[in-house]
Amino acid sequence: MSDIDATAAAPKPGERSAQNAWSGVLFGVGLVAFIDEAVFHQVLHWHHFYDLGTTDLGLVSDGFFHALGWFATIAGLFLLADLRRRGALRWARWIGSVLLGAGAFQLYDGTVQHKLMGIHQIRYVEDLLPYDLTWNLIAAALIVAGGILLVRTRGSRTRAHRPGAAAAS
Amino acid sequence: MNPAGLPFAAPGAHATGAGSPIELIVVAAAASAIAAYATGVVVSRRRGRPWPWPRPALWTAGVVLAAISAAGPLASAAEASFVAHMWAHLLGGMLAPLLLVLAAPVTLALRTLHVTPARRLSRLLRSGPARFVAHPVTALALSSGGLWLIYRTPVFEAMHADPLLRLVVHAHLLVAGCLFTAAIVGLDPRPHPSRRTLLAIVLVIAVASHGILAKHLAADPPAAVPADDAQAGAQLMYSLGGWVEAAVILVFCAQWYRAAGRRRASAPADAASLAR
User: Fold this and answer.
1) pTM of this prediction?
2) Is A5 within a domain?
């Protein structure tokens, strides 16, 4: 790919701001979906595969987030690779978007999917409230942190991979 | 294999044992598929056009997986165990199609056939009906829709009583799986390629549909399947199916990434975007 990059024009400042954000948001959503599946379902066995309280809408929502989780992780990383080869990657903006995507999905999972649609609970214990609170507060913290980073990196100039750096990628 | 001792195959229906006619058909079909591909590779080499070496390996592995899902010990076990049935479904209906499609059999055929049959094949592929069947939305309906039909209608019980129907279902899963995989990540020439955004949407719907069906089977198992066998089979469908789907997504994104790179190389001033 280096021959391709050598011929590419140098990126303009602030170029591909949206792609930085999308790449991060997708990867963040995928990361949380992956942690949910790998850690909470398969390692800890806190989450149940299926719960008798699950609504049909819950099954559909769960199925689409399962699918989007895989797709978002992989597509987000390829968008990241594309930003790198264009020399338009801005890590601060990307990481902010990861936090935002991760927090948004975690909050949706913790409120709509766990509570409204009853797909499953975080853990099958007597007092669920501490688990629900921790889950959703972490989600809110991720959203706030991601939002701050995104606002602060809005319109700022591309720092990494300025002209001449293209051949290195 | 069956904890409750309730085999869901009807007595006397075990016709996939060694030496049965169906087993012979499957083995003969698999052997000729491997032989035909190998001949194509040899012919291509002799004409001085080397064929990438991973492809014959992919083809052989795909054919073997498709065959063991329809005949042999796994197929026999699948008559009494839902978990074994699900292994056969995942290997023969999902993994085998991916391997077969990545072996680019149509490209090999077009390259090695004589001019007249090659032209006929090319014309057939460009014909209206072929384009309709190969369209990603049609392929999605055939593969994902077909799955719901098999598991949520009496077809599932019927296929365990009738070896011939079982073979037809296996063939359907293999062919529909190949059509779908070819529509999404096929390497063979496509006269009318679909937009990648449409392909991405179709792919996400297919993965979602597979996951929803797996949980639906856990919630409401087919009548003849014991509860714990159904749970284990449904979880296998969800998790292992997810890995095969991830492989398809990976290939899809890698192709998109490479195509975007090629477009940038050919038109650097145009600032080609990743979206087509």
Assistant:
1) 0.82
2) no
Does residue A100 form part of some domain? yes
The sign one gets for the Cα dihedral B224, B230, B236, B238 is positive
Phi, psi of B143 (to 5 degrees): -80, -55
Q: Identity (one letter) of the amino acid at B232?
A: A
Contact criterion met (CB < 8 Å) for B215 and A85: no
pLDDT 10s digits, B188-238: 877 777 889 999 999 999 999 999 999 889 888 888 888 889 989 998 998
Domain enclosing residue A147, as ranges: 17-157
Copy the structure tokens of residue B226: 């014991």
Distance (Å, whole) CA B42 – CA B174: 26
- Is position A141 within any domain? yes
A64·B208 Cβ contact <8 A: yes
Q: What is the pLDDT of residues B140-180, one digit of tens each?
A: 999 999 999 999 888 888 888 888 898 999 999 999 999 99
| pLDDT tier at A12, thresholds 50, 70, 90 | low
Residue A90 maps to a domain = yes
Chain A residues 16-55 with CB within 8 Å of chain B: 19, 37, 42, 49-50, 54
